Amino acid sequence: MRAVLMAGGSGTRLRPLTCDLPKPMVPILNRPIAEHIINLLRRNNITEIIATLYYLPDVMRDYFQDGREFGVEITYAVEDEQPLGTAGCVKNVEDLLQNTFLVISGDSITDFDLQAAIAFHRQKKSKATLVLTRVPNPMEFGVVITDQEQKISRFLEKPSSSEIFSDTVNTGTYILEPEVLEYLPLKQESDFSKDLFPLLLAKGEPMYGYIAEGYWCDVGHLDAYREAQYDALEKKVKLYFAYTEESPGIWLGQNTYIDPTARIEPPALIGDNCRIGSGVVIEQGCVIGDNVTIGAVSDLKRPIIWNGVTIGDESYLAACVIARGTRLDRRAQVLEGAIIGPLSIVGEEAQISSNVRVWPSKRIESGAILNINLIWGSTANRNLFGQRGVTGLANIDITPEFAVKLGAAYGSTLKAGSQVVVSRDQRGFSRMISRSLISGLMSVGIDIQNLEATAIPISRTMTPKLGVSGGVHLRAHPDRMDHILIEFFDDEGINISKSQEKKIEGAYFKEDLRRVGIADIGIMAYPAQIIETYRQTFETQLDLDSISNSEPKIVIDYAYGVSGAILPQLLTKFGCDAIVLNASLRQTSVPTEERESLLHQLGQVVEAVKANLGAQVSANGEQFILVDESGLPIRGEWLTALMVNTIFTAYPRSIVVVPVEASSAVEQIARRHDGRVIRTKSNPTALMEAAQANSNVSLGGSGDTGFIFPQLHPGFDAMFSLAKLLEMLATQGRSLVQIQAELPRICHKSYVLRCPWKIKGALMRYLVEIHHHEQLELIDGVKIINPQNDNWVLILPDAGDAFVHIVANSDDREWVDVTLREYRHKVQKFIEHEQDNLNSM
């Protein structure tokens, strides 16, 4: 007799285990389900097998080949164009089925006596015999009713609880006569339970049900997959064990080393070439694949571990599944029901919460707590917040589901009934994510003041004016066009503190989310006259008469951003002759290449119309690049120096706040005007906090971050910066070219090196140790200074990525080049040395 092994299933419900593996090739006791079925067929003297394949067919063909090594003969039939269904795939091999044949599903574990079922079929002279079994909960299966002669009288596929009329179900194993295939259409999708069997019943063909004794488990979902493993270990099902039973209930493979201090409780199975470290506890129910390494003092409570897995010291695994090639670093925890897909990396002290699924080839950052499925993104981070709020790939890392939970986590750190401002840029994905975040906030009893699409400086201005507890702004990331950036403000409009970020992260990762009753769910309002309120605040900080009397001509490129809908209204009030470029709103971010092209176009227009200046506004109204009268751009350190010079001329003896990496031209300008410079950490929050905390601050920020005027509001504001610059040019009677001629010489270069996270701390310690303390400034990173002049070099770890920045500053270009080259070599050599040490551990 021939058997048809239906092995084409993709196993959607078993993902991520079946992302790169067909369902019949998923291992039970370290051997594919299909191998256990082939062993069952061979035990029942069925050695001619036709395997029907569809999903990833080469995986099964490469493993079994012609079947000789498994004591059978296997022929393969691949459904190339479309899946044909359970009956259609058998119809497809009709020419190979001239006599009575058996059909068996490729995704179940059983030890039924198939010869007894075949004998029953022949005795009843049946055209189709279904092998049945009785189960406690038949709702997931096809229910079958038979009469006293065991002739089938009724079918019901996957009944609801009210439709259950029997506990006898179809196991997917059939004994058929070849003529029943004549009822099926050729090369069309069809199903045994839905199409063929009801038709045979209607035609009055003799069809019987054989109720089999023995074990049967449909490995249709992840819980069933684990249960089948545990049942097999406890010998509830007769399966072939590929390893020697060294002691009762403990099976061990060849060349496996187990430290004498390790403890193994039966039943347990450990494959070939494994290494079990000292103090390891392997409790009953563990299934460990081939080539697995388990570090010292790890605690394993019934995990299923596939081949090639590496588990670090002191790890904890409980009733989970770890797929092939995965690495768990020291003290990692994977809790009950979690599934880690193939070739993933779980970092040191990371925790995968119960029932979480991680898709293949993902990386869980050290210390991260993962309590949602990781499917689309490549990494699960330890922290939600980076250098500038919460950021990630739009609709991959930052999804609507993520935003709902983030909003609920933020709202849970505030008092119920608090109000929060929410705003965004004009882009479609920002609108989508903001709506989800608002839903999360309202679910925990937070009321919303929704500013909708507006520039971020306006949000910061309105936050204290509306008397709310905080604010959230969503926008395209200024530096990554495919990323979204979510920033949180306090009640003054300043980015929230690190301690508040930690509270939100704690609520998010621990799922410590407040839930309120229907009566207390938050409400949403839409404040009126937002732009008018901002304009009035704006005007209180400007000498409007000076601007108006000078009749400035300015060309502004809005780069298709939302500030293009706001700034023209303000400039008109000041009597500016403003020429506007690219003020229409665009749903997608502007690529860097296009932005540079727009900047070149801006320079040409400024020169052609003989404007006083041009400006390209970006980052949702926070940042800008100037263009002088001759059409040349002013940006970065030159823009910082120009703004500082202009401000100190207008406000001598005041204070400016700049990031640690800003050039020393700032100090040189301050000395000319008897001013003072405060340097802060590189992140925007530190700049905002310092600008607010110190009195007599006239300016904060830099050309790269944007500029803060603390008397206006605590954030970066390109719109006010331009208006203030026009005022100062008018009152000082100077042009941009004249101001640039006064600036100190700026020699300022930077270089980026890749540096693994685990090495960053050691690198900083090394740099501190090799320099005298009088040479060091440790505001952010390690800054090596020369107390006699303005020469310095800064080594600054990147807050968001595995990089380190090396910045050199001097008024001597040769010194900058030599120093930058020296420290690049020094840092690179240290990183390589540390990596060699880590790899040898």
From TrEMBL:
Its EC number is 2.7.7.13, 5.4.2.8. GO terms for biological process: carbohydrate metabolic process. Keywords: Cytoplasm, Initiation factor, Isomerase, Nucleotidyltransferase, Phosphoprotein, Protein biosynthesis, Repeat, Transferase. It is found in: Cytoplasm, Cytosol. InterPro entries: A-D-PHexomutase_a/b/a-I (IPR005844), A-D-PHexomutase_a/b/a-I/II/III (IPR016055), A-D-PHexomutase_a/b/a-II (IPR005845), A-D-PHexomutase_a/b/a-III (IPR005846), A-D-PHexomutase_C_sf (IPR036900), Hexapep_transf_CS (IPR018357), LbH_EIF2B3/5 (IPR056764), Mannose-1P_guanyltransferase (IPR050486). The keyword Protein transport does not apply. CDD domains: MPG1_transferase (cd05805), NTP_transferase (cd04181). It holds the Pfam family PGM_PMM_II. Gene3D superfamilies: Alpha-D-Glucose-1,6-Bisphosphate, subunit A, domain 3, Hexapeptide repeat proteins, Spore Coat Polysaccharide Biosynthesis Protein SpsA, Chain A. GO terms for molecular function: mannose-1-phosphate guanylyltransferase (GTP) activity; phosphomannomutase activity; structural constituent of carboxysome shell. Residues 383-513, 533-631, 636-743 form the Alpha-D-phosphohexomutase alpha/beta/alpha domain. Residues 3-233 form the Nucleotidyl transferase domain. GO terms for cellular component: carboxysome. SUPFAM superfamilies: Nucleotide-diphospho-sugar transferases, Phosphoglucomutase, C-terminal domain, Phosphoglucomutase, first 3 domains, Trimeric LpxA-like enzymes. Residues 250-352 form the EIF2B subunit epsilon/gamma LbH domain. PANTHER family: SUGAR-1-PHOSPHATE GUANYL TRANSFERASE. Belongs to the phosphohexose mutase family. This is Mannose-1-phosphate guanylyltransferase / Phosphomannomutase. It comes from Crocosphaera watsonii WH 8502. The lineage of its organism: Bacteria, Bacillati, Cyanobacteriota, Cyanophyceae, Oscillatoriophycideae.
